[in-house]
Amino acid sequence: GLSQYSSDPRTEWDLSTYSTRDQVLEAVRNLRYKGGNTFTGLALTHVLEQNLKPDAGARLEAEKLVILLTDGKSQDDASLAAQTLKNLGVEIFAIGVKNADEAELKQVASEPLELTVYNVLDFPLLSSLVGRLTRVLCTRIKEKSNKESTGSTVKDIPANVGPQLSPADLKISAVTSKSMHLSWTPPLRRPKKYRVVYYPSKGGNPKEVVLDGAISSLQLSNLTSHTEYLVSVFPIYDTVVGDGLRGVTSTLPLSPPRSLRVSELSHNSLRLSWKAAQGATQYLVLCSAAPDGAED
Fold this sequence. Notes:
Elements: E1 2-4, E2 10-13, H1 21-29, H2 40-51, E3 65-70, H3 78-87, E4 91-97, H4 102-108, H5 113-116, E5 117-120, H6 130-149, H7 162-165, E6 168-173, E7 180-185, E8 193-200, E9 207-212, E10 217-220, E11 228-236, E12 245-250, E13 258-263, E14 271-275
Parallel strand pairs: 3-4, 4-5
Antiparallel strand pairs: 1-2, 6-7, 7-10, 8-9, 8-11, 11-12, 13-14
């Protein structure tokens, strides 16, 4: 399975989409590169919520491996999302290119780091990693499979954690041109933290707020006016992320000036007056000659 990410993670194909090596290689050749930001924490949460579930092809008996490829430092908290995956028995390999932060790669990756962290100076050099990484991955799978066959248990990603671990009833209220208020009903079991992500639906950098699990409301401020926002609330526990809440709403437009009047006309001047717009600190006045034939 493969997902690309920038500010909004996108599943390219699930674990169960292809059944042969040639099909996977053809899909890679046809892949379109997704440019943008580097929200690695959001991407790892997407992998947990979307890509490692049974309906996406994850099998209970199969080892769970995530290979992260990144060329930059994350713009959100990647270590928290990575730790949740690792607590569930998912093994993470971190591969950095160019401007990747090696300290962050080591935070995200599973132990032992000498086998799970790789960093190269440019994309063509990734080919030098293929042989070693393949051998390491295959060996790790065999080792973990042998442990399972001798009686150790393999944790599965919950298919649906339900009301026990998931909040409900997201309410968005008190919407203004620059702010909105979020509230929700907590799950039966209190989470360790909430992760709230919000961003404009037509593109823009996601922003993230992490709250204590005892809090179930949040005031979002410094928003852009007259803009549709997507909002997600994820409950985070020590070993699992509950199902997230999602909502969408638009901020109000800024207050316009009203009652424009023209007075004191002369051959080369006129006076304009209007009722003030609430909150405005300046006005921009544009004036141009009317086209021929238009009313003055």
